[in-house]
Amino acid sequence: MLTAPERPYATRAVREERLPFRVRLAAAPQDVERAVEIRASAYARHLPHVGEALRNAEKEDFRPDVLLLIAERKLDRRPIGSMRLEPNFSGPLRVEGETTLPARFRNKRLVETTRLGVDNGIAGTLVMAALVKAAFEICSAAGIDYGIAVGRRSVGEIFRSMCFDVVDGPVRMSYSQRTLFWVFAIPTLEWEGRLRERDHFYFDFMARTEHPDIDIDYARVFEAFAMP
Description:
Strand content: 25-35%
Number of domains: 1
Number of strands: 9
Largest sheet: 7 strands, mixed
Radius of gyration: 16 Å
Structural class: alpha+beta
Protein backbone atom coordinates (compact mmCIF):
# COMPACT_ATOMS: atom_id res chain seq x y z
CA MET A 1 0.00 0.00 0.00
CA LEU A 2 1.48 3.35 -1.03
CA THR A 3 1.81 6.08 1.56
CA ALA A 4 2.33 9.83 1.30
CA PRO A 5 5.22 10.40 -1.11
CA GLU A 6 8.55 12.09 -0.52
CA ARG A 7 9.04 15.63 -1.81
CA PRO A 8 9.39 15.40 -5.60
CA TYR A 9 12.07 18.11 -5.78
CA ALA A 10 15.83 17.73 -6.04
CA THR A 11 16.15 21.16 -4.45
CA ARG A 12 16.01 21.48 -0.66
CA ALA A 13 13.20 23.58 0.80
CA VAL A 14 14.53 26.61 2.70
CA ARG A 15 11.30 28.07 4.11
CA GLU A 16 7.72 27.34 5.06
CA GLU A 17 4.92 29.63 3.92
CA ARG A 18 1.31 29.74 5.05
CA LEU A 19 -1.30 30.66 2.46
CA PRO A 20 -4.58 32.51 3.08
CA PHE A 21 -6.39 29.57 1.49
CA ARG A 22 -6.24 25.76 1.38
CA VAL A 23 -5.86 23.48 -1.62
CA ARG A 24 -7.38 20.02 -1.34
CA LEU A 25 -9.23 17.35 -3.28
CA ALA A 26 -12.99 17.63 -3.65
CA ALA A 27 -14.53 15.05 -1.35
CA ALA A 28 -18.31 15.61 -1.49
CA PRO A 29 -21.01 16.69 -3.95
CA GLN A 30 -20.99 20.15 -2.33
CA ASP A 31 -17.31 20.48 -3.27
CA VAL A 32 -18.16 19.79 -6.91
CA GLU A 33 -20.85 22.46 -6.79
CA ARG A 34 -18.37 24.96 -5.40
CA ALA A 35 -15.79 24.07 -8.05
CA VAL A 36 -18.42 24.57 -10.76
CA GLU A 37 -19.25 27.98 -9.29
CA ILE A 38 -15.71 29.34 -9.52
CA ARG A 39 -15.11 27.62 -12.89
CA ALA A 40 -18.15 29.21 -14.53
CA SER A 41 -17.32 32.61 -13.06
CA ALA A 42 -13.71 32.48 -14.25
CA TYR A 43 -14.57 31.43 -17.80
CA ALA A 44 -17.38 34.01 -18.01
CA ARG A 45 -14.86 36.86 -17.56
CA HIS A 46 -13.15 36.07 -20.87
CA LEU A 47 -15.44 33.65 -22.71
CA PRO A 48 -19.03 34.42 -21.64
CA HIS A 49 -20.54 31.79 -23.92
CA VAL A 50 -18.32 29.10 -22.39
CA GLY A 51 -18.95 30.34 -18.85
CA GLU A 52 -22.69 30.03 -19.41
CA ALA A 53 -22.25 26.45 -20.65
CA LEU A 54 -20.23 25.56 -17.55
CA ARG A 55 -22.86 26.51 -14.96
CA ASN A 56 -23.59 22.83 -14.43
CA ALA A 57 -21.22 20.01 -13.47
CA GLU A 58 -19.83 17.82 -16.24
CA LYS A 59 -19.75 14.02 -16.26
CA GLU A 60 -15.97 14.15 -15.86
CA ASP A 61 -16.44 15.76 -12.43
CA PHE A 62 -17.86 12.45 -11.17
CA ARG A 63 -15.54 9.93 -12.82
CA PRO A 64 -13.84 7.74 -10.17
CA ASP A 65 -10.46 8.08 -11.90
CA VAL A 66 -10.60 11.90 -12.07
CA LEU A 67 -9.35 14.23 -9.33
CA LEU A 68 -10.86 17.64 -8.71
CA LEU A 69 -8.71 20.19 -6.88
CA ILE A 70 -10.31 23.11 -5.09
CA ALA A 71 -8.84 26.17 -3.38
CA GLU A 72 -10.93 27.73 -0.63
CA ARG A 73 -10.38 30.77 1.54
CA LYS A 74 -9.65 30.00 5.19
CA LEU A 75 -11.78 32.93 6.32
CA ASP A 76 -15.12 31.69 4.98
CA ARG A 77 -14.33 28.61 2.84
CA ARG A 78 -15.40 30.51 -0.27
CA PRO A 79 -14.11 28.73 -3.42
CA ILE A 80 -11.44 30.79 -5.19
CA GLY A 81 -9.96 28.24 -7.57
CA SER A 82 -10.34 24.79 -9.07
CA MET A 83 -8.62 22.44 -11.50
CA ARG A 84 -9.48 18.96 -12.77
CA LEU A 85 -6.93 16.20 -13.39
CA GLU A 86 -7.97 13.64 -16.00
CA PRO A 87 -5.69 10.62 -16.67
CA ASN A 88 -5.50 8.40 -19.74
CA PHE A 89 -5.44 5.10 -17.83
CA SER A 90 -8.94 3.96 -18.79
CA GLY A 91 -9.22 5.70 -22.15
CA PRO A 92 -7.94 8.56 -24.30
CA LEU A 93 -7.62 12.06 -22.91
CA ARG A 94 -10.39 14.50 -23.65
CA VAL A 95 -8.10 16.50 -25.91
CA GLU A 96 -7.43 13.37 -27.97
CA GLY A 97 -11.02 13.59 -29.18
CA GLU A 98 -10.08 16.92 -30.79
CA THR A 99 -6.57 16.32 -32.14
CA THR A 100 -3.93 13.58 -32.45
CA LEU A 101 -1.03 13.82 -30.03
CA PRO A 102 2.49 13.18 -31.40
CA ALA A 103 4.01 9.71 -31.22
CA ARG A 104 6.17 10.53 -28.19
CA PHE A 105 3.04 10.45 -26.03
CA ARG A 106 2.05 6.95 -27.11
CA ASN A 107 1.96 4.37 -24.27
CA LYS A 108 2.82 7.05 -21.72
CA ARG A 109 1.05 7.89 -18.47
CA LEU A 110 -0.63 11.22 -19.15
CA VAL A 111 -2.75 13.62 -17.12
CA GLU A 112 -4.69 16.43 -18.74
CA THR A 113 -5.37 19.44 -16.53
CA THR A 114 -8.78 20.84 -17.42
CA ARG A 115 -11.26 23.51 -16.35
CA LEU A 116 -8.72 25.65 -14.50
CA GLY A 117 -10.50 28.62 -12.98
CA VAL A 118 -9.37 31.14 -10.37
CA ASP A 119 -10.51 34.41 -8.86
CA ASN A 120 -9.55 37.58 -10.69
CA GLY A 121 -6.59 39.78 -9.77
CA ILE A 122 -3.34 39.29 -7.87
CA ALA A 123 -4.90 36.78 -5.46
CA GLY A 124 -5.83 34.62 -8.44
CA THR A 125 -2.18 34.48 -9.53
CA LEU A 126 -1.20 32.97 -6.18
CA VAL A 127 -4.12 30.53 -6.27
CA MET A 128 -3.12 29.38 -9.74
CA ALA A 129 0.46 28.81 -8.58
CA ALA A 130 -0.78 26.69 -5.66
CA LEU A 131 -3.08 24.62 -7.88
CA VAL A 132 -0.25 24.06 -10.35
CA LYS A 133 2.07 23.00 -7.53
CA ALA A 134 -0.52 20.57 -6.20
CA ALA A 135 -1.05 19.09 -9.67
CA PHE A 136 2.69 18.68 -10.22
CA GLU A 137 3.19 16.94 -6.89
CA ILE A 138 0.26 14.60 -7.59
CA CYS A 139 1.65 13.76 -11.03
CA SER A 140 5.10 13.13 -9.57
CA ALA A 141 3.71 10.83 -6.88
CA ALA A 142 1.63 8.91 -9.43
CA GLY A 143 4.45 8.41 -11.93
CA ILE A 144 2.89 10.54 -14.65
CA ASP A 145 5.17 10.98 -17.67
CA TYR A 146 3.63 14.15 -19.10
CA GLY A 147 1.21 16.79 -17.99
CA ILE A 148 -1.04 18.00 -20.82
CA ALA A 149 -2.87 21.34 -20.82
CA VAL A 150 -4.94 23.34 -23.25
CA GLY A 151 -5.49 27.07 -23.24
CA ARG A 152 -6.62 29.99 -25.35
CA ARG A 153 -3.96 32.39 -26.67
CA SER A 154 -3.59 34.51 -23.50
CA VAL A 155 -3.46 31.46 -21.20
CA GLY A 156 -1.06 29.85 -23.62
CA GLU A 157 1.46 32.59 -22.93
CA ILE A 158 1.34 31.59 -19.27
CA PHE A 159 2.02 27.93 -20.13
CA ARG A 160 4.91 28.93 -22.38
CA SER A 161 6.39 31.01 -19.59
CA MET A 162 6.14 27.95 -17.32
CA CYS A 163 8.37 26.01 -19.75
CA PHE A 164 5.61 23.92 -21.35
CA ASP A 165 6.16 22.76 -24.94
CA VAL A 166 3.64 23.68 -27.62
CA VAL A 167 2.17 20.46 -29.01
CA ASP A 168 -0.58 21.68 -31.35
CA GLY A 169 -2.83 24.58 -32.16
CA PRO A 170 -4.88 26.41 -32.78
CA VAL A 171 -7.57 23.74 -32.45
CA ARG A 172 -11.31 24.39 -32.12
CA MET A 173 -12.37 22.47 -29.02
CA SER A 174 -15.89 21.08 -29.19
CA TYR A 175 -16.11 20.89 -25.38
CA SER A 176 -15.45 24.65 -25.14
CA GLN A 177 -18.01 25.90 -27.63
CA ARG A 178 -15.60 25.61 -30.60
CA THR A 179 -13.21 28.16 -29.08
CA LEU A 180 -9.64 28.16 -30.44
CA PHE A 181 -7.18 26.56 -28.02
CA TRP A 182 -3.53 25.51 -28.08
CA VAL A 183 -2.23 22.22 -26.63
CA PHE A 184 0.79 22.18 -24.31
CA ALA A 185 2.83 19.48 -22.55
CA ILE A 186 5.50 19.24 -19.89
CA PRO A 187 7.65 16.18 -19.04
CA THR A 188 7.10 15.72 -15.31
CA LEU A 189 10.69 14.76 -14.55
CA GLU A 190 12.09 17.77 -16.40
CA TRP A 191 9.90 20.52 -15.01
CA GLU A 192 11.91 21.43 -11.92
CA GLY A 193 15.10 21.69 -13.97
CA ARG A 194 13.45 23.83 -16.63
CA LEU A 195 12.07 26.23 -14.03
CA ARG A 196 15.47 26.48 -12.34
CA GLU A 197 17.29 27.16 -15.60
CA ARG A 198 14.85 29.91 -16.52
CA ASP A 199 14.94 31.35 -12.98
CA HIS A 200 11.13 31.26 -13.03
CA PHE A 201 9.40 32.49 -9.88
CA TYR A 202 7.51 29.17 -9.74
CA PHE A 203 10.84 27.46 -8.97
CA ASP A 204 11.15 29.27 -5.64
CA PHE A 205 7.44 28.82 -4.88
CA MET A 206 7.38 25.13 -5.73
CA ALA A 207 10.78 23.67 -4.96
CA ARG A 208 12.26 25.90 -2.26
CA THR A 209 9.11 26.55 -0.20
CA GLU A 210 6.97 24.18 1.86
CA HIS A 211 3.22 24.90 1.78
CA PRO A 212 1.32 22.98 4.49
CA ASP A 213 -1.93 24.48 3.21
CA ILE A 214 -1.60 22.40 0.06
CA ASP A 215 -3.04 19.35 1.76
CA ILE A 216 -3.58 16.41 -0.59
CA ASP A 217 -5.15 13.10 0.42
CA TYR A 218 -2.75 10.73 -1.34
CA ALA A 219 -4.79 7.66 -0.46
CA ARG A 220 -7.44 9.18 -2.75
CA VAL A 221 -4.84 9.92 -5.41
CA PHE A 222 -3.53 6.35 -5.47
CA GLU A 223 -7.04 4.92 -5.45
CA ALA A 224 -8.23 7.13 -8.31
CA PHE A 225 -5.12 6.48 -10.37
CA ALA A 226 -5.31 2.72 -9.65
CA MET A 227 -1.90 2.39 -8.05
CA PRO A 228 -1.13 -0.65 -5.83
